[in-house]
Structures are given as C-alpha cells and as structure tokens.
Protein 1
Amino acid sequence: MSLNTRVIAALGAVVVIGVGTVVGSIAYASDQTEPSDHRVTLTVGTSSMEEDPFCFNDGKPLTDQQQEECQEKAGKALDEGKLPKSDVVASDQIGIGVTPDVADRGWWANSNGGQGQGGRFVLASAAKGSTYSGSVSASKALNASGKTLITVVESDPKQPDAIYGVWYFQLNTQDA
C-alpha cells in the first residue's frame, strides 16, 4: 500500500506547522522573565493578590541595616498608601499562601491588630514546609483603626534573627 502525494504533502505541512509552533513558543518563552520563587499570596474572602517581597536580598539574610531600612520604607509606603491593599469586612476569611521555596526555609505571618497578644494576631507561626496558613475570620486579625497591616517574613525557625524576605499588605476595613 503506497501513500499518495496529497497525503505526503499534508503530513509534511503538519510537521512544518508543528515545528514552527514549538520554535515560536520557545522563542516567546525565552523573552519572558522567570517567575519569582519567593512570592506570597494574601487571600481575603473570595479575592487574592500575589506579591514579590517588599524587601529581599537575593536569598541571603537581610543585614540589620537592611532590616531597619525595610521597616522605614514600609512605614513610608503605608503612610502614602503604596502597599498592596485589599478591602475586607469582618465576616471575610483571610489566609496567607507562600511558594514552596519560602515554605522550605520557614515563615511566619501576623497582623498589627486583633485579638492576639501585644496587639498582634498570629496568622502563621514558624511554619516550615507548609505553604498555607489556613483561613481565619478577619474579625480576629483586624485592628480598630480600620487599616490593618499584615506582615509576612521568610525566616528559618532555627535562626529567627536571619530574615530572608519581608512582605507587607494593608487591609482596609469596610462596613458589611
């Protein structure tokens, strides 16, 4: 049984188109920036946002000076309304997700309000290996000012002073 010329031409066209698609996809992908392996996702109700670190030192611990500068920069960004923000109502559920690279090293997260000790509510404490904090009622984590700051820190629980990355989010309390 022999193939006729039309079948051979059709198969050749499919191969040429397939190769062209693969080559074009590789060229397109090589122009794209690589996704960050240090990202945090804040989930509020049914919405979420994903962010790169606010302060990061290419995977090396932040120096004491870098940590101080990070806090100053964060305070200024908060005052100017430049932190990533989300509206929240007290009945929303909130949670924090991290990439596997952050989870492998370890991380913690808290808010500057709510029903926690010292005016802080712990969302995740020395979590290592876990990529999600779990969902909690926003009413537990919100502060009375209507603007709640969520802080997420990448830090090895065995070396809590070694901070590798810091993320900040602002929650703006809305009436239900």
Note: Residues 150 and 169 are 5 Å apart (CA to CA).
Protein 2
Amino acid sequence: MATALAATVRPALQIGALVGLDQLARVLTPHLPLALPSNLVGMLLLSLLLSTGLVRERWIGTGAGLFNRHLAFFFVPIAVGLLAYGTLLREHGLALLLVIGLSTAAGIAAAGWIAAWRATPARPPASP
C-alpha cells in the first residue's frame, strides 16, 4: 500500500515542482531585458538548476517522463488552431513550408559549424 501511494505521490510532487518552475518563469519574464517567452525562460532555469546540481534529474525525472509520454496531447490545441487558418495555408502554405525548411536547415548548419569549430582543439604555436 505504501509503495502504491509513493508511486502516485512522487510523480505528483515532481509535476508540481515543474509547474512551480513554470510559474516562476512567468513571473520573471516581464522583468527581463529581452523579450523571451516564459516557457523558454522556464527551460533555461531548469537547465541551469540541473547543470549546477541544485536539482538532480532523479528528483523530477518521473514527472518529466509523464509529460514526455503524453507530449502529443499538448499539440492538439495547435493542430486545432491551424484549422482556423486553412485559407492562409492554402494560399501561402508552400511558401511558409519553404521558409520554415530553409530557416531550420540554416539553424542546424550554423549549430553544426559552431559545434565543429568549438570541438577543434587549439593548435600550439609553432616553435621558432
């Protein structure tokens, strides 16, 4: 009985912590010098907390895993919203797809170039 209760309470507390972090990001976002979406600020905060060790992955892993397993449900409102723009997509859908594809490819190429540049070891100066 205690194990079943722990299996229910632990993910609920983890999800609560993630929601709390999201709410903190929503409060902080208007005060930032850059106009960033609060969900991005929340992810950056979570990344900072994980990378510094202030939060351990095992403390939030189960709750985050639940979100990941049910990620498709979060896209349903987006898909329904796209239906409202059917005329726009029919008229300009190909151009939008082309712009999105090219900008994605450019972003991936830039990230790959920067990663390769950063991974290249520095050469020692030539001795005279």
Note: The CA atoms of residues 8 and 42 lie 25 Å apart.
Protein 3
Amino acid sequence: MAKKVIVIEENRDILDLMQYILEDEGYEVISSVDGSVLGNIEQTDPALIVLDNSLTNEKGSSLCRKLKSNPSTAKYPIILVSAVNEIEDIAKECLADAYLSKPFDINELIAVVKQHIA
C-alpha cells in the first residue's frame, strides 16, 4: 500500500508538479490549495505533509505550529516550502521537520520527502 502524502500548495502549477513527481515515486498524494484538507488529518493519517508557507487564508507556518502543538497531530512530519529567504528560520520556529526553498530541484524534493517519510 502506497504511503500517503498531503501536499498543500497555493500555486496550482506547483501543486500539480509536486503531485506528479510524488505519484511517480509511488506515493498516494492528497493535494489541496488550502489547509482545509487538514480538517480530517487523523482519518487521512498521512506519512508526511508538504506545506506551502504562503497560503491565502493562513500562513503554512501557523498551521504547522498548530499541528505540532497538538499531541494527536504532532507525530506527522511536515516539510515547509517557501520562496522567502528566511525559510530555514521560519521552519525552526514553527517546529517543521524540514524545509524546501523555492524554486526547488525535483531531486531535492524527492530526497527530502524520502528522508522524512514516516
């Protein structure tokens, strides 16, 4: 059974690209342009969450902090993705397990996912 990866990315083109790459690597991808997919995270039970920091309704770092501060969702590894220069500091502050800078290399995406997949 394929491991589930939730990908939340506001830019539809980047979302589609990430989904294609990860599905090609054998993962089941649940994609969303906003954080609404996290509402039933415990039922989805993903092996990993790839989370864009620049979402319309709420910052990805804020969603990450909420997930990591809740004992029932803190176990899910989160990769925070952003084009901002401070992404490393932002990822540390919100307790993300890893970060990925945009623009990213396809092999870099695959490597960081494989490194942090549960």
Note: The helical segments are 12-24, 41-44, 60-69, 87-93, 106-116.
Protein 4
Amino acid sequence: MSKTVTREEYEAMVGQEIGVSDWFEMTQERINTFADCTEDWQYIHVDPEKAAKTPFGTTIAHGFLTMSMLSAMVYQMPSVEGVVMGVNYGMNKMRFVSPVPVGSKIRGRFVLDKVEEIRPGEIQTTTTVTVEIDGKDKPALVAEWLGRRYFGG
C-alpha cells in the first residue's frame, strides 16, 4: 500500500527516487496467461523444452509482460492527495535491456523526473522506471513513463 502525499510534497520529490516496489515472480503460469491474453505463443515464452535449446536456456517472460507489471508496481509508489483518476499517457523511451527468465523476480525502481500542470486539475508526470531482476546486474527494462493525474473538484 502506498503512502499519500500532498501535491506540494509530490512536486518536491522531482529529481528523487520515490520508491521501490516489492518483488514479483515471473512464473510459467503468469507467462502462459499473458501469452493467452495477447495471443503471443512464441516458443521462447511457452515451450520449456524448445526454449531450453536457445541461448536463454529456459523460457523467458514477454517484454510486454515485464512492461505490463509496471501497473502493479506503481500502486506501491506515493499517491497524491485529491487525485480521483490516473491514466497511462505513454512512454517517451523504453528499452528491454535483459531477458527475464522464468522463475526470476523483478521489481520497479521509480525516479520522479518532472511534474507539469497541463491545465487546472490535471498534471502530467514523467518518471524513469528501472525494472530490476533479482541477482542480476543489468535491468530487464528501463523506461521514461508518462502519466496523467486528475484532481477532484
């Protein structure tokens, strides 16, 4: 559960790490469920026997599955008092740096880069997020993520 901060406190966090999520395990069940949802059944994701013969040595999570886990991770970051809705606005940059082998644990590290007022009651945030793989030096993903937050009247 995230802590709640005022808008002023949140804006004062620009340039700082605002949090690190819990670890999430990339199980084969999670990977298979994502494959079914997206209809991406490439063998490197869903066929352990064939994937074992690749340079990965095992199945790996879809890059988009890793990216999608940001939704769960961000709920553990500070929330802003008075926000009634938040939406994903996109990515300026995103790179899948390293594969995520089945059984790995990943977590997100969030740095708040910018908060801009779009119009009264609406802000846009730019956050650099790094998805770390437990026990690995190189991250799975690095992204510059844009979000919009809307305040109630």
Note: The mean pLDDT is 96.
